[in-house]
């Protein structure tokens, strides 16, 4: 575990400019769902960084010796799209800067980005939890229904009880990616298991708890496999990695569109998913789907609740069809790259995100999902270039 947190010995100017543009922005966003938002005022930092950060990213771009015409054209088109989507859309204000940083920093080392993001998530989560228990910020207790049962839930310093388990799930996925193909140790599984049990005990968030439990069980079984982990990616695993985002998006959209409480299977699925299908269909009927999204006012009060948890439905409604297609195509390209590179860790991380996006709305939020940078790499041709470079290196070794 220590190797995952080794400090970089050398930080070049390009990395420094990126870090200054990216880290304060996402760390500020990480504080927005906590009650520290009333103390630290993270939105002021976010607004400042969305101006200052662009200057830093443009300076970084100027350091490049060569800029391909294709990459430049695609970057300009994506930035224009992000600008249009964000204009007069409070829910999509983050899209503009997200697109800019994903596009202009598409050549950054993904492993560094994931590590820096994960460290921030861990630190801010721990600060929030300890502050809630110490009484520095509120630890709000709420009562909600799920599957016909009442449950007492603690916010743990967050404005809503699901934020903590969602961050834990993000940290787990990132840790899987950083572990690469190495087997887990009992201690690593034990740490995540304790965190998962602790989080579920206080927040009663079933779906995140279930996903984390399944992953930890699989890693536990893998420890006792005598033979080495097969590094090749093939069969069903390969197919689902390549087309997983398409399949999960299709499943989410179709079950939502055809949801009817009179249909037993869909009614059961809706109950299992805590009314996600019903709220998703209500959102589609009320707001529809447009090219550049709609400015939706979310209500979290129990009597007026209308939030859409599925990332696929949420992105289509709030950010529009163009951003939705960019995400689907970008992650499809990334999935194919991961399979061709036999990168099992990346394949598993992507698969978990594709499945998670059916039930959680964080797919297009960089402070939850740093793998969004793969979309920039996909459209800029960086993934194709890395594939070619790796193929040449492999031939030389042979």
TrEMBL record:
Give the domain of life. Answer: Bacteria
The membrane spanning regions, by residue number, are 12-30, 42-59, 71-88, 94-110, 117-137, 157-177, 184-201, 207-224, 236-259, 312-335, 342-359, 365-383
Which of UniProt's keywords are assigned here?
Membrane, Transmembrane, Transmembrane helix
Q: From the Swiss-Prot or TrEMBL record, give the protein name.
A: O-antigen ligase domain-containing protein
Q: Which organism is it from?
A: Blautia massiliensis
